[in-house]
């Protein structure tokens, strides 16, 4: 095989692989995730203590669980003292391999940069989370931490 043909085949292979997402979902799909910390740039406390009724940090019976499904649908379930307090449905997608677009629970709505901190722990951050609250501006920076629960 001549060098030109070999380089052409190599270039086609690289182009084809570049179009595939190496981590199609970073293990998000069909897994159970626990959201355990939400912060904004101007708050030095976990916003879950304000948003979730009776939420207790570091108490495993109080938890917010997210399921990411294959059809770009997700659900969020808040458990208080091991009892379902409420459940909501939202949407998600990965427009880029390290960007999670999520709209869930009326407060989380943005494109979050995904950073893997540990094997099953991720840091999600955005400069423009559209919060849906009756305040201006309609968005603020948000950081979230999630971990694989099961």
Short structural description:
The protein is mainly beta and 150 residues long. It has helices spanning 3-18, 48-51; strands at 32-39, 63-68, 73-80, 83-96, 99-104, 108-118, 121-130, 139-148.
Task: Give the arrangement of secondary structure elements.
Elements (H helix, E strand, L loop, with lengths): L2 H16 L13 E8 L8 H4 L11 E6 L4 E8 L2 E14 L2 E6 L3 E11 L2 E10 L8 E10 L2
Antiparallel strand pairs: 1-2, 1-8, 2-3, 3-4, 4-5, 5-6, 6-7, 7-8
Beta strand %: over 45%
The second-level CATH architecture is Beta Barrel
- Shape category: globular
Number of strands: 8
Instruction: Describe the strand arrangement of the main beta sheet, using strand numbers.
Output: 1-2-3-4-5-6-7-8
Low-confidence stretches: 3-24
Number of H- or I-type helical stretches: 2
Using only CA atoms, what is the Rg? 19 Å
Amino- and carboxy-terminal Cα gap: 50 Å
Helix content: 10-25%
Order of helices and strands: HEHEEEEEEE
CATH class: Mainly Beta
């Amino acid at each position: 095989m001549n060098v030109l043909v070999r380089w052409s085949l190599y270039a086609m292979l690289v182009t084809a692989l570049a179009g595939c997402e190496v981590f199609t979902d970073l293990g998000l799909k069909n897994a159970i995730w626990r959201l355990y910390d939400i912060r904004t740039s101007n708050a030095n406390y976990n916003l879950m203590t304000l948003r979730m009724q009776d939420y207790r940090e570091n108490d495993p019976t109080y938890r917010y669980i997210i399921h990411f499904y294959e059809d770009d649908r997700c659900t969020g379930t808040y458990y208080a003292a091991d009892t379902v307090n409420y459940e909501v449905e939202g949407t998600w997608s990965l427009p880029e391999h390290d960007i999670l677009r999520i709209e869930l629970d009326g407060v989380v709505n943005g494109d979050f940069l995904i950073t893997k901190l540990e094997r099953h722990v991720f840091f999600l951050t955005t400069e423009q989370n559209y919060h849906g609250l009756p305040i201006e501006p309609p968005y603020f920076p948000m950081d979230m931490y999630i971990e694989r629960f099961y």
